[in-house]
Amino acid sequence: MYKETKVYSSVGGRAVLPCSGAKFSRSCAEVNWAKLWMSIVPEPVVCSGRVVTPSKRSSEPRLGADCSLHIDNLEKEDGGTYVCEHSAGNRTISLQLLSISVEPSTALAVSHRVSLHCYLSAFTGLVLCNHSGVKLTWVTERGTELQGDRYSISYKSACHTVLSVVLRATDHQRKWSCQLTEHQEVKTTVSHVTALADAVEEMFASEGQTLMLPCTDPASLSAGEKLQWSLSETPLFSLTTDGQVTALVKGSTQGLRMNPDASLSIHGMTEKLSGRYCCSKLNNSDRISVHRMIVVHLLTCTVYDNIGMKADYQRRCHCNETRGQQEDQCDNHSPTASVPTVLFIVSDSCMFLNDPKYADEEDLNSKLESFKNKYMEFDLNDQGEIDMMGLKRMLEKLGVAKTHLELKKMISEVVGGASRDTIGYSDFLNMMLGKRNAILRIQPRVNVKAPHGNTDRLEKI
Predict the structure, then answer these.
(1) Which CATH number is 341's domain given?
(2) Global pTM?
(3) What are the CA-CA distances from residue 351 to residues 71, 218, 332, 426, 440 (Å)?
(4) Are 188 and 205 in contact (CB under 8 A)?
(5) R_g over Cα of the chain
(6) Is there a single domain that holds both residue 365 and residue 291?
(7) pLDDT tens by residue, 155-202
(8) What's the number of domains the chain is made of?
């Protein structure tokens, strides 16, 4: 009697079921595979080495060179128990699939609450969860654990977790991923993309910044279809099934480029390039569907220095919305959840660019851009601050691991001796540009010249 082997995969993925223990001289002619429906009724899948197409599957399984059973485009019903029969005995394999279901499944919209159920399914419904060492985790696209006050995560069992969230405009076409680990080893991941009705995404950029606007996978196009980007109803580019990109209006595409993956690049953001961008699928000249609707805002900042001290800067961010004027004030240093982190990043960057202390700093713009990207990567909750753990992970990724005490000391030095567990972007820039102390020893990938004549080469980010 052999112990049952577990194989994990996800709906839409692929699985390889091993027929271990068997020794075959020339072929798999003596191998049979069967699926046990409801764990008792066998249905032949392979008979004497020949695949018998199951009536319940849309695609045909296949045998590997070692007589393993390969199943592509897994469906929920493919989960369950399989038996490999051969002269040396029988092997039982339990194929357990990770899947996501959504409540409600239709009519998703901004401000609506949605619940995503991630669960391990052996057949239909939930398996009896007696799995030791199995853990389900909601993760970001970078593979880190999803964290933040807006996410409510609960566990019905070790094999079933629920993510509940109130949808934002930026959640349109967002990929939510659930990861299964067994004894801390990643076994499989399943994802679900939320599509919101009439959703308009927003992106914010400072003048001169480069942006990348996503669309959809060009492989989804059928014969005669194309993807088209437009700005305020003016067609810009089209991409056909053969990968050919065509500029549709001469003179309207300066600073813009459509890429082979259907994304749109904006190089050197200006007021002229702000507005409502739309990526649509067309058949001939008829619009079939809209994949992305993105409003790009241009942010500019004016900095007022009343008495020459950084702490007394008053900052105002001007948001140019679809070439109309809408002004958002971000006074003082107190970010709010309703204002995107990028507003404070642009504002604080303006403050440092206008600070006489850094007038002699070489490549200041390049450094601020590098710092901005690093900061936004670890501001996972878009709250305008990095917590202690985020700062610790950032430094570990940069190869400069710090203890909790060192991190506290670093933050204390930057914020003037106060005891803090978070650091805002202004203090972060001050730490990166101004301190350069023995604790940190980090700077961007440029040779820097310190404001007061120190030209030592510093370490790279």
Answers:
(1) 1.10.238.10
(2) 0.51
(3) 58, 42, 12, 9, 23
(4) no
(5) 28
(6) no
(7) 888 889 999 999 887 787 788 999 999 988 999 999 998 888 767 777
(8) 4
